[in-house]
Amino acid sequence: METWQRLFSKRTERMKASDIREAFKLAERGDIISFAGGFPAPETFPTALIAEVAHEVASRLGASSLQYGPTEGLYELRESVAQRLRGEGIECTAENVMLTNGSQQALDLVGKVTIDPGDTVIVEKPGYIGGISAFNQYEPSFTPIPLDSDGIRVDELERVLAQGGPVGGGPVKLCYVVPNFHNPTGVTLSEDRRERLAELAREYGFCVIEDNPYGDLRFDGAPRRHIRTYDSGENVLYLGTFSKVFLPGFRVGYVVGPEPVIQKLAISKQGADLCSNSFGQRIILECARRGLIDKHVKSIIDVYRKKRDLMLRALAEHFPDEVEWTYPEGGFFVWVTLPEEMDAKALLPRAVATERVAYVSGGASFVDGSGKNTIRLAYSQASDEDIEEGIRRLGRFLKGEALRMRANAQDRGPASRHGRAGWTEGIGAIGSNR
Ligand SMILES: Cc1ncc(COP(=O)(O)O)c(C=O)c1O
Fold first, then answer.
1. What is the pLDDT of residues 381-423, one digit of tens each?
2. Residue of the nearest CA to atom 8 in ligand 1?
3. In sequence order, what are the residues at sequence separation of 6 or more whose Cβ sits closer than 8 angstroms to the Cβ of residue 68?
4. CA of 384 to the centre of ligand 1 (A)
């Protein structure tokens, strides 16, 4: 490895294994109930349909269905995406859409074409780890803006911008948000904050990255407008994906932006992979043409709503009083805030060893190193029975930890005993057994 210590670029010093991947490794071990991965429920995958459509596409188009495709993606699918988004109020044409290798690649390419070392990237606190690590490779300076139950605190962002940007930071280039059923917290950005965010982007000349993989999976409450609908298109790039609403295996996502930006992204994409999965794009196009994707989305909403409800009910029944959690109106995640003294990452191996249950510790979602007492629970992949049983086990584990902590505090004497003030307020905590 000595040679490689010399060969690795300076850039790699900033790269570290994500806590999510680490949690996956633990969860892979046999009889573990895992709430770690934000994976879609496997029972929702339309395997028979995909087999039939794949056969049909390959037979009808022959070898050309297996050829390289255009870097920007199959034109007809770009058109189909644009048409759907126009129906949701986003003015765009096929030329404004580039298909990517999942929306994760769009995050990487946007970072590549916009961020110079030291530029400021605004991120949510906590934010999506995959987005943060994609941008991190291009050496920005992150400015975290806290969230509450209405999403990113746009007033706080405005305060930072009004004082001339973050102290000592480079120009603000990007503001990265997941407005619907946020990963990791499950919260949704309020309508007035969406509008104000688009205004601020125009006023201060930065770009909002509106990353919306979960927006179609709304279980209750009124749908919100896309941030992009409050903008002409210049200051908001919109990202979407078929991963969560259909299937992730084809790796088909998209970015919507002004044509010159799409062209720049396409040049950058050529260096990355020449083109994305063209056969997968053809299958998705055929499914979209037959109206099967919309039908599929409608059917899976009920599946995920049931899982969300099961998890919320189990949390209320089994979790200790001192713990708080969010109420997601859609998507895959519940965010849990433990007592401040608990370190979720340190506790994870013990939760796996003693209770055979896994989660993602939230700390890595905070670029400022805070949030050690937080947990992301994905209800999306676990079976209904495992949700009930896994939360029961995790609740038992956390109750034991809370008791142990109290006993330790008592041993140390009254001065060190924490009271209510010692527990942190959760992000938009709706649920709690207090
Ligand atoms: C907020 C967010 N953005 C982007 C992605 C990447 O999705 P994909 O690359 O599968 O489209 C994910 C996946 O978990 C996500 O949660």
1. 999 999 999 999 999 999 999 988 888 877 776 544 333 333 3
2. 102
3. 274, 275, 278
4. 23
323 close to 337: Cβ distance less than 8 angstroms: yes
Q: Which residues contact 150 (CB under 8 A, 6 or more apart)?
A: 187, 188, 189, 190, 193, 428
Omega cis (within 30) before 70: no
Question: What is residue 42's DSSP assignment?
Answer: G
Q: Hey, what are 199's tokens?
A: 């205004």
If we measure between CA atoms, which residue out of 285, 128, 112, 287 comes closest to residue 212? 128
**Residue 361: strand pairing partners:** 375
330-376 pLDDT, tens per residue? 999 999 999 999 999 999 999 999 999 999 999 999 999 999 999 99
**Are 60 and 310 in contact, with CB atoms under 8 Å apart?**
no
Q: What pairs with residue 256 in β-bridges? A: 97, 238
Helix, strand, coil percentages, rounded to 5, for the chain: 50, 15, 35
As a whole number of angstroms, the distance between CA 287 and CA 254 comes to: 17
> Per the structure block, which two tokens stand in for 142?
């992150």
User: Which atom of ligand 1 is the closest one to the Cα of 106?
Assistant: 9
Q: Is 123 left (phi over 0), alpha (psi -120 to 50) or beta?
A: beta
DSSP state of 420: G
CA distances from 398 to 34, 198, 327, 343, 354 (A): 16, 41, 20, 11, 12
To which residue do tokens 């290798």 refer?
101
Give the closest residue (by CA) to ligand 1 atom 2: 213
Return the residue matching tokens 């949390």.
315
Tell me which residues have their CB closer than 6 angstroms to ligand 1: 38, 102-104, 128, 130, 178, 183, 211, 213, 241, 243, 248, 253
Q: Ligand 1 centre and the CA of 275: distance in Å?
A: 19
Residue range 267-274: mean pLDDT, rounded: 97
Token pair of 363, please? 């700390």
Nearest one of 239, 250, 255, 256 to 284, comparing CA atoms: 250
